[in-house]
From TrEMBL:
Its EC number is 2.1.1.14. Residues 9-321 form the Cobalamin-independent methionine synthase MetE N-terminal domain. It catalyses: 5-methyltetrahydropteroyltri-L-glutamate + L-homocysteine = tetrahydropteroyltri-L-glutamate + L-methionine. Catalyzes the transfer of a methyl group from 5-methyltetrahydrofolate to homocysteine resulting in methionine formation. Its cofactor is Zn(2+). L-methionine binds at residues 496, 611. This is 5-methyltetrahydropteroyltriglutamate--homocysteine methyltransferase. The gene is metE. It comes from Kribbella italica.
Length: 766
């Protein structure tokens, strides 16, 4: 290709659920038996069609296919490649749809695939399970059918498939397979199956196929890059195939860029937003891309802010000389953003003008394509409107609260350090609390019963008033406390019954945060969340948790923990503003939370927990960026928690941890006590911390709350004994892995009774 044709607009994927989450309703109805398989298929086909037509109407020239999913696109890839685990084969053979859902959710008889986070997003995928004996066989029926559906609408369509390197890198050894088995060793077995997939898609009418390789934006070894080169040499060398577009997103390609550039694929799709902006400079050095199609991801596909169209046009213009053909897209699939800002009638029009969901982003892509092809004059009106919206945002009082700004600017190093060293603090805390060795506690929430959910729904619908709602919450807190006293726990919690969600609850009470009405994004399967938006400068108009904490503490002599969500987690589960560094937003949130911590202390709280379950989740994909992130991430935790006296005990909690990465970070948070997920890894965390000489209190979970299973007392005793081999009894806490909100009361009662019983048994042996 050396003559450039007009730029085309495209996207890699679109929200799947439907404007009103029709897909969720249909799938859950199917599970319950109230929706037939045919009705589900029809709903799904209708949603796909509506999405494609919407995209075409909004000016997208080339639509994606195969991105639709009943549950997860990585699971779809496992089906496409025939990588069905042994334990699910019978179900899949009996009925492919039910078998598919059995892989996703398990059945009475078989466990589901494991689920984990898709890179650093809040989307979760089903982890492929592979072993040396895995055989792959192509089942292209879904991909082919969906391509045909789009082609039949008269659209230009491009199937999107997870690429072989990423698929294998995302996989894990199947149960029973040696844990050191590397799925990437299956590359030579999987490539012929990809070849079949490509041939089938070509036969079905695909001109191009997109192979997604986001795993290449992480640090990859020389071997992995060699295998990447080999994979694309093989696929590129096939004769019976469509043209290949290899897509990456979420960060820069780094050393993988020249590998892909040199490979015989016809196109690359590259992210030029956020941490991936560096791809632009890297591309200058690559002569091979000059003969390829380059799909430029200039519209951020994972935030909800309008694009700076002028800046994107400049990027596109720079790219023009660097590639054979430049097309325009979002940086990644629009799966990560909600449908349509227009549905948000509760948002002030000025603020709405700063927001872009999937529909608005599609329109931006179309506008940029036009401006890029025909010149800025062709989109003068849109550029003006865009400039006006950006100006309104940067000049708004909402984004420039002078009090907040002054306060952040005045933060000193001393503000993020406790007044006394740990040894002094722990002595003062022990004098105040008088806790036994191996103190017992829980992570915060107790079961969110149907009564509680109903009460919340009743309040929203006006069936009960605030006073009646509060009464129900009060009763629940009393019951939770009475149970904990009876069970013999040492440090109690109020159970968080008033909280719908650990981030939303605070977002609703902080100024500068925006809640959406319809801003659903897929978390996993049929679970959707509505992340709140950090839209302006953050401040706390009044205390958020003191009232219920004080209410709880009145009911008992034992200490009740104050319970807050930490600043990094507040950011991680929200849409974060992009007009200032994340660290700046985090500092604003931290100062608001610091006031809350101090108010809890003033109200009498002797123990305050600040949860940071997401610290590990938002770890940058590139190792080189991690130190800077952990530095501000731990600083804002300290800023939140350092305003208290020495005798106030600060706890933190983290889940889903792989401690190798964040051991130092845990140390830098300087929390007096950290409760951590550990039950399934048999206290490994305790040993890692012990080996590293971790100096403070730690509660490695002894009760796996991800399962309804009740751990027996002897099992907990043995975990505690293991823990004691690494951490002395003065500093070893006894607690579950995480909050109990998803569990049922019967199993929680028994489990906590056993947990306290085990702590008592082990104390007697000391
Ligand atoms: N305090 C929260 C709870 O118990 C912590 C939840 C979490 O770590 N995800 O629910
Ligand atoms: Zn947790």
């Amino acid at each position: 290709m050396n003559t450039q044709s007009a730029a085309r607009s495209t996207v890699y994927g679109y929200p799947r659920q439907g404007q009103n989450r029709e897909l969720k309703k249909a799938i859950e109805g199917y599970w319950k038996g109230t929706v037939s398989a045919d009705a589900l298929r029809q709903t799904a086909a209708g949603l796909r069609k509506a999405n494609w037509q919407q995209l075409a109407a909004d000016g997208i020239d080339e639509v994606p296919t195969g991105d639709f999913s009943y549950y997860d696109h990585v699971l779809d890839t496992s089906v496409l490649l025939g990588a069905i685990p042994e334990r699910h084969r019978a179900a899949v053979a009996a009925d492919p749809l039910d078998g598919y859902f059995a892989m996703a959710r398990g059945t009475q008889e078989v466990a589901p695939l494991e689920m984990t986070k898709w890179f650093d997003t809040n989307y979760h995928y089903m982890v492929p399970e592979l072993g040396p004996d895995t055989t792959f066989t192509a089942d292209t029926s879904k991909q082919v059918a969906e391509l045909r559906e789009a082609l039949d609408l008269g659209l230009t369509a491009r199937p999107v498939v997870v690429g072989p390197i990423t698929y294998l890198l995302l996989a894990k050894p199947a149960p029973g397979v040696d844990e050191h088995f590397e799925p990437l060793s299956l590359l030579d077995k999987i490539l012929p199956v990809y070849a079949e997939v490509l041939a089938d898609l070509r036969a079905a009418g695909a001109q191009w196929v997109q192979l997604d390789e986001p795993a290449l934006v992480q640090d990859r070894s020389a071997d992995e890059l060699d295998l990447t080169a080999r994979a694309y040499a093989v696929l590129g060398g096939l004769t019976d195939r469509p043209r290949l577009l290899v897509a990456s997103y979420f960060d820069r390609l780094g050393k993988a860029l020249p590998v892909l550039a040199k490979s015989p694929v016809e196109g690359l799709a590259i992210d030029f937003t956020g941490p991936a902006e560096g791809n632009l400079d890297d591309l200058v050095a690559s002569s091979e891309v000059r003969s390829k199609r380059l799909v430029a991801g200039v519209v951020n596909g994972r935030n909800i802010w309008i694009n700076d169209l002028t800046k994107s046009l400049a990027t596109l213009t720079r790219l023009r000389s660097l590639a054979g053909q430049v097309d325009v897209s979002a940086s990644c699939s629009l799966l990560h953003v909600p449908y349509d800002v227009a549905a948000e009638d509760g948002v002030a029009p000025e603020v709405a003008s700063w927001l872009a969901f999937a529909r608005q982003k599609s329109a931006e892509i179309a506008t940029l394509t036009l401006g890029f092809t025909e010149g800025a004059e062709a989109i003068a009106e849109q550029l003006n409107a865009n400039r006006a919206a950006l100006d309104s945002r940067s000049g708004s009082a909402l984004t420039n609260n002078p009090d907040v700004r002054a306060r952040v600017a005045a933060v000193t190093e001393a503000d993020s350090h406790r007044s006394a060293p740990y040894a002094e603090r722990s002595a003062a805390q022990q004098a105040r609390l008088g806790l036994p060795l191996l103190p017992t506690t829980t992570v915060g929430s107790f079961p969110q019963t149907t009564e509680l959910r109903t009460a919340r729904a009743d309040l929203r619908a006006g069936r009960i008033d605030a006073a009646q709602y509060d009464e129900r919450i009060g009763t629940e807190i009393q019951e939770v406390l009475a149970f904990q006293e009876k069970a013999g726990l040492d440090v109690l919690v109020h159970g968080e019954p008033e909280r719908n969600d650990m981030v939303q609850y605070f977002a609703e009470q902080l100024d500068g945060y925006l809640a959406t009405q319809h801003g659903w994004v897929q978390s996993y399967g049929t679970r959707y969340v509505r992340p709140p938006v950090l839209v302006g400068d953050i401040s706390r108009p009044e205390p958020m948790t003191v009232r219920w904490w004080a209410y709880a503490q009145l009911q008992t002599e034992r200490p009740v923990k104050g319970m807050l969500t930490g600043p990094v987690t507040m950011l991680a589960w929200s849409f974060v503003r992009d007009d200032q560094p994340r660290s700046e937003t985090a500092r604003q949130v931290a100062l608001a939370l610091r006031d809350e911590v101090n108010d809890l202390e003033a109200a009498g709280a002797a123990v305050i927990q600040v949860d940071e379950p997401a610290l590990r989740e938002t770890l940058p994909l590139r190792r080189a960026d991690r130190a800077a992130y952990l530095s501000w991430g731990t600083e804002v935790f300290r800023l939140t928690t350092s305003g208290v006296r020495a005798d106030t005990q600060i706890h933190t909690h983290m889940c889903y941890v792989e401690f190798g990465d964040i051991l130092n970070a845990l140390d830098e948070m300087e929390a007096d006590v950290a409760s951590l997920e550990a039950a399934r890894s048999h206290m490994q965390v305790a040993h890692e911390l012990g080996d590293a000489g971790y100096p403070r209190g730690v509660g490695p979970g002894v009760y796996d709350i991800h399962s309804p299973r009740v751990p027996g007392t002897p099992e907990v005793v043995s975990l505690l004994q293991k823990g004691l081999a690494a951490i002395p009894a003065e500093r070893l806490w006894v607690n579950p892995d995480c909050g109990l909100k998803t569990r049922g009361w019967p199993e929680v009662r028994d489990s906590l009774d056993n947990l306290v019983g085990a702590a008592r048994t082990v104390r007697e042996q000391l």
